[in-house]
């Protein structure tokens, strides 16, 4: 582990997304000094393409997205997906710190169904989130 911790705000926003369903996704990032994980952005917009547009081409982020989907019998379901976004274009050091800091955030988020590692947009496509077992 990198010694990085998740700010309390991360858990508060995650609780809001999980319980009140008022948020659709949250993006997390390291602070400037790389000592703490902070909330970068959150949104109520269910547009998955907007969510993907917030993943930088050359920087690392973590995210939680609340997938809504319909089963074959017509019933509605939700699952929380955790994304670890580390694109190939990101600096090596940033990717290393990102990878070693992930557990500080991930282990504090209870109720995640799916974890998705992404290095390019094809790996985080909507179908990827839906196709993962829950």
From TrEMBL:
It comes from Suillus placidus. Keywords: Actin-binding. Gene3D superfamilies: Severin. One of its GO terms (biological process) is actin filament depolymerization. GO terms for molecular function: actin binding. Belongs to the actin-binding proteins ADF family. This is Cofilin. Pfam families: Cofilin_ADF (PF00241). It comes from the Eukaryota. PROSITE patterns: ADF_H. GO terms for cellular component: actin cytoskeleton; nuclear matrix. Residues 1-134 form the ADF-H domain. It is found in: Nucleus matrix.
